[in-house]
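Narrative summary of target 7.
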Amino acid sequence: MVRVISANGDQLGVMAISDALRTARELELDLVEVAPTARPPVCRIMDFGKFKYETAKKDQKARKKQHLSVVKEVKLRPRVEKHDFEFKMRHARDFLEERDKVKITCQFRGRELSHPELGYQLMERVIAMLGDIATVEQKVGQEGRFLTMMLAAKPGVGAAPKTKPEEGSEAPQADVARKE
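Modeled conformation, tokenized:
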């Protein structure tokens, strides 16, 4: 005995499995068990192929909207030059705009290790420079010869979704002349 639900959601009641299968065959649909632990088990009359197709499409759409976050690393030294620092911060900004997380690492070598305050000052400069688009996810911490910090993009920051041009309107294309 099973409880049967029709294709449009109406309850057909409790009936024998053979009667439920016959009813499903008459409608040219499938009998699918949806709640096997219920007493009596619940079966639904539906087009199972169509159901599987729709759930696959729904899952595909959900995966398309999610962003897999990747951790990118930017390595610095305590005595980094101004241009090198700005160059690396531009890369960090690009990573954050792509919604990736950024691990900032400051490596000490030799006698630099006796002046960790230089590394902490450098990390403060990083926070000041990227504070408009990033939040500190993991505070500055020292692990041996390294100072590390993790940054994540603030909500709402990121590349604008790419839009497709409307049907009938084409994007302008540049004319390229070739020498032969």
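The first strand starts at residue 2 and ends at 5.
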